Amino acid sequence: MTTLAFVCVQNAGRSQMAHAFAERERASRGLEDELTLVTGGTDPADHVHEGVVDAMADAGIDVAGRTPREVTFEEVRDADHVITMGCSAEDVCPAGWAGENRDWDLDDPDGRSPEDVARIRDDIERRVADLFDELAGD
User: Fold this and answer.
1) What average pLDDT does the structure give for the chain?
2) Which of 9, 19, 32, 125 has its CA 20 to 30 A from that of 26?
C-alpha cells in the first residue's frame, strides 16, 4: 500500500483541493486498494476557505463539509510521498523520514479572486493527474 500525503499549514485550501482531486483520480483508476490518501495541516484553520469550496463546486467536487485537520508526525513519517503546497510547513519533514518530499510551490488561494482560485485549482488538478501518471510508471 502506497501512502500520499498532501500537507499545508492551514489545510484549508491547496491541500484540500489536492486531496479531493487525488480521491477522484484514485477512484477513476481503481486504486482504492493500493493507495492511501492523507491530508492535514501543521496549524489547521477552522474551515475550508469559501473561495476553495466555490471553485471546487465549479469542478464538480463538494468540499463544503470537510474540516481542516492537523497532520500527525506518524502520518508524515509513514507516507511514501509527502506533497507540500508552497507554504512554510517546515514541520512536515521530520528527521529520519525516508519517503519522498515535494513542494509544489503554489499560490495561496485564500482571499484571491474567483479567477485566481480557479487557476490555482486547475494547476493542482493537473499536478495530481501528473503525479498519478508518474506513480503508475513506477
Assistant:
1) 90
2) 9
Listed in order, strand segments (DSSP E) in the chain are: 2-8, 35-41, 81-84, 100-103
| pTM, 2 dp | 0.92
Q: Which element (helix H / strand E) includes 36?
A: strand 35-41
CATH number of the domain residue 42 falls in:
3.40.50.2300
β-strands 100-103, 35-41: how paired?
unpaired
Question: How many whole angstroms separate alpha carbon 132 and alpha carbon 49?
Answer: 26
**Distance (Å, rounded) from C-alpha 25 to C-alpha 111?**
27
Residue 97: pLDDT above 80? Answer: no
The amino acid that residue 38 corresponds to is: V
Q: Distance between CA atoms of 60 and 85, rounded to whole angstroms? A: 22
**For range 21-44, the mean pLDDT:** 95
Say what the pLDDT of residue 19 is: 98
Give the count of beta carbons closer than 10 Å to the beta carbon of residue 32: 11
Cell numbers describing residue 120: 490555482
* Domain range enclosing 116: 2-137
Provide the number of structural domains found in the chain: 1
Query: pLDDT band for position 90 (50/70/90)?
Result: low
